[in-house]
Every structure is written in structure tokens, then in C-alpha cells.
Design goal:
Blueprint: H1 2-23, E1 34-40, H2 42-58, E2 62-67, H3 71-80, E3 85-88, H4 94-102, E4 107-121, E5 129-131, H5 132-140, E6 157-161, H6 166-176, E7 192-194, H7 197-206, E8 210-215, E9 224-229, E10 236-237, H8 241-245, E11 252-260, H9 265-274, H10 277-285
Parallel strand pairs: 1-2, 1-3, 5-9, 6-7, 6-8
Antiparallel strand pairs: 3-11, 4-8, 4-9, 4-11, 9-10
Helix pairs in contact: 3-4
């Protein structure tokens, strides 16, 4: 009798467990959660976070994970297959494309916003304008004192982003090397490499000897922005959305997202939304340049 009772109890318990598995809502009754992993450029990270936050409000069934680390880090993650979208403030390099294809990855490029690299100094610095050539000479170590560019008799302290930064690479290739692919000039060895755009702004605010560069969206009112000219006798221009769009500001660039092959599903929907006026309005709000006017 006791054995029979125990068997009956076990039968009821097992039957209950099986019934629970069967009645768990299937994917056809529950909104499917899509996760997008997005990593890379520190220039883009605040914008990418703002896009992700807004998109998840609009589409709660999509989760977007956004982290920085630099353009090189994001592209490496794309090559390794550990992200869905890589953010970059520079174009992917030919050798990176080769690495990707060798790993079965076909990078597809999307221009998602535009940016100007602003040259910043301390507000006490009397220098108001510099040419691209002067910037090249400063950052390569040919010019070492502010008096050489009509400033005070002070040693120049050079600030830069770290080498994994797309902004660092863009500045090296287009400012220090003057856009010449055969030019092998390097940053002066005493250039201070900082891990973030915010760090460059903070150091520039506190040190009257400093020169730095930052994406336009990271420039704060407590630093001074230098007008930049292509030639000594030409036009000197301050960075802004208008001067980027009309081609007057000489240190402007596109900002990118890369995917493995043409995206589909949730990733396609997300990138298509980024191109909309609603998403591009966020670009303007954060101080960058929209690819189309909202």
C-alpha cells in the first residue's frame, strides 16, 4: 500500500513537470528578443549609446550592447566574429580587409555621420589660427615653442589619442603626413597619448601649454578652438556642421559602421533607422554633423 502511494505521488509529480514544459510560452507567443553587439570607436561611442537608447525605447524587443575601445578594437572584433556592428572613425584598412576575408568575414561599410577634428588649446593661449603645415610641424616635433607660431614663449605640450584610436590614425595620415601616402612622418616621441577624448579636453582646459585635437562632439566651452587653414594666405576656418558640409573646414571625416556582409533582420532595421531624420537629429544634438538634414 505504501509503495503504491509513493508511486502514485511520483507519477503526479512527473506529470506536473512535463505539463509545465509544454505550457511554457513558445516563441510564437512571446516577442523574440534580438541582441545586437556594437563595439569600437570612442568618438562614436556616445552617439552609438544615444542611438541604442532611443531605438530600444521604440523597439523593446531589441537589445543593443554598445562598448568603446577604439576603432581598431571594433574592427578586430568584427574580423574575429565577436560583434555584429563595428564602429570606426576611420575607414577600414586594406590589410584589415584581407585579414577579415581570410577569416570568412566580408566587411560592409555604412557612413552614419560626419565629424570635424577640432584643434584645441587652453583659453589663455593667444594663438587663434594655424595651418595644416604648422600642425604637422608641431606634432612631428619640428616646432616646439609657441613663440614659433606667434604665441607666448612656452614649450608646446602635445596631446593625442592612443594608437588604437581611429582619430589618432586619421590625424596622423591627414594632418601630420599631409594626406600623402608616401609620407612616413610620425608623431613626436614626447607626444602624450591619452585614452579618451574627454581626457584631452580636460588636460587642455587645465594646462596653458597644451595643444590637442578632438572630435567636434567632444569639444566643451572651456577650451579654445583654433581656426585651421590649408595655406598661410588662404581662408582660416573654425569647425562646425556648416563648414564641414560646405567643404571649407580642412580636417573633416566620415564616421562609419561595419557589418559582416550585407546585414539582415534586426541589424538591417537598426542601420536603416540610423539613416532616418529621427536618428540624425541625435547626431546634431551631440555636436556631430548629420549625413542628411533632419
Amino acid at each position: 500500500m505504501i509503495v503504491s502511494t509513493i508511486c502514485m505521488i511520483l507519477f503526479v509529480l512527473l506529470s506536473s513537470c512535463g505539463h509545465a514544459r509544454e505550457t511554457t510560452p513558445s516563441s510564437s507567443h512571446t516577442p523574440k528578443i534580438s541582441t545586437i553587439v556594437n563595439k569600437g570607436s570612442d568618438t562614436l561611442v556616445n552617439l552609438a549609446l544615444a542611438w541604442a537608447e532611443k531605438y530600444q525605447q521604440l523597439y523593446p524587443n531589441v537589445e543593443i550592447s554598445v562598448t568603446g575601445g577604439g576603432s581598431g578594437t571594433g574592427i578586430a572584433a568584427l574580423i574575429n566574429g565577436t560583434v555584429d556592428i563595428a564602429n570606426a572613425s576611420r575607414q577600414i584598412k586594406p590589410e584589415e580587409i584581407q585579414q577579415a576575408k581570410a577569416n570568412g568575414v566580408n566587411p560592409i561599410e555604412f557612413v552614419v555621420a560626419r565629424d570635424a577634428i577640432a584643434i584645441i588649446v587652453n583659453p589663455e593661449n593667444p594663438v587663434n589660427r594655424l595651418t595644416i603645415q604648422q600642425l604637422s610641424d608641431i606634432y612631428s616635433g619640428k616646432i616646439n615653442n609657441w613663440k614659433e607660431v606667434e604665441g607666448n614663449d612656452r614649450i608646446i605640450v602635445r596631446l593625442s589619442r592612443e594608437t588604437n584610436s581611429g582619430t589618432h590614425v586619421f590625424f596622423l595620415e591627414n594632418v601630420i603626413r599631409l594626406g600623402d601616402p608616401n609620407n612616413k612622418t610620425l608623431f613626436s616621441t614626447d607626444t602624450l597619448l591619452l585614452p579618451s577624448s574627454e581626457g584631452i579636453t580636460a588636460e587642455t582646459r587645465d594646462n596653458p601649454n597644451v595643444i590637442g585635437y578632438d572630435g567636434l562632439g567632444y569639444v566643451t566651452p572651456d577650451v579654445k578652438v583654433i581656426a585651421v587653414g590649408s595655406k598661410p594666405d588662404g581662408l582660416f576656418v573654425l569647425p562646425s556642421a556648416d563648414t564641414v558640409n560646405n567643404g571649407q573646414y580642412p580636417i573633416a571625416r566620415d564616421l562609419y559602421m561595419y557589418t559582416n556582409s550585407q546585414p539582415s533582420g534586426a541589424i538591417t532595421d537598426y542601420i536603416n533607422w540610423i539613416m532616418t531624420p529621427e536618428a540624425q537629429a541625435i547626431v546634431t544634438q551631440l555636436g556631430f554633423v548629420p549625413i542628411e538634414k533632419p
